[in-house]
Fold:
Amino acid sequence: MATYTDIDFNFTRNSFTNDLNLVQDLTAVRQSIKNIVLTMRGEKSFNFLFGGSAQRLIFESTGNISVDDLSRINLAIRTEEPRVTLKEITYSFEDELTLVLNINFEYNASGLSENLSDSVSLTITGDSTSSTSGVSNIIVPTTTSRSAASPTISSYSY
Structure:
C-alpha cells in the first residue's frame, strides 16, 4: 500500500473510472517539491510565504545566486514538505538563460527501517520574449540521475 498519495498534476484521467490519476510515494514527494520550489511567494492565496520563487533566479547574473536565494528555497521545502529531509541544493547555469537546480533529499517510505535518498532536477529556461514572467520552459525529469555538471556549478549543503 502506498504511503503518500496525491493527484497527478498532469491531470490525466483513469480510463476505467474516469477519475483523475494518482501519483504515489516517490513520485508524489517529487511532485510536491517541484510545486513548492516553482511557486512564487505571494502566488498562493492566504499563504503568501509559500513557495521558493525559483523562476526569479533565472535573471540573476550567471553564477551569482546568493546564499539567501538558496536559503529561501531551503526554508520553503523544510516548512511545506515534512516528509523529506533536505540534504543539498546545487545549481548550475547551462547558458545565460538556463538554470539547473538539483535538490537532494531523503524520505522514509512505509515499512522501511531506513531513509531513501533521491533528487529532483529542475531545468528553468528563461525567454526574454515570453509573457509568463520570463519563464518559457520548465522540465522535471522522472529519473533519479543527475545531469552532467557544467563549469559553473555551486552547492549549498545542509
Observations:
- The domain at 5-157 is CATH 3.10.450.40 (Nuclear Transport Factor 2; Chain: A,).
- The two ends are 31 Å apart (CA to CA).
